[in-house]
Amino acid sequence: MIKYEELLKLSQDSEKLTGRQAGRQAGRQAGRQAGRQAGRQAGRQAGRQAGRQAGRQAGRQAGRQAGRQTDRQTDRQTDRQTDRP
């Protein structure tokens, strides 16, 4: 027959094991949570960066377009003035 002390020791050992498992589980959970958070943060950052880049690009494009338009109008006016006797 197993002595009381041996049973107590076995019981304590199994508690340590479940504590270890709970620790692992909590660690995994915290890791997942941190991973999700970092992923969201990186996504937001990338979104902002892409938005800024697209805004700059659109601004440059609009500036070039407006510049060309102005140049054409100036050329037409110059041509009209030159054509007059």
Automatic annotation (TrEMBL):
Q: Compositional bias (Low complexity) at which positions?
A: 19-68
* Sequence segments annotated as region (Disordered): 1-85
Biased composition range(s): Basic and acidic residues: 1-18, 69-85
What name does this protein carry? Uncharacterized protein
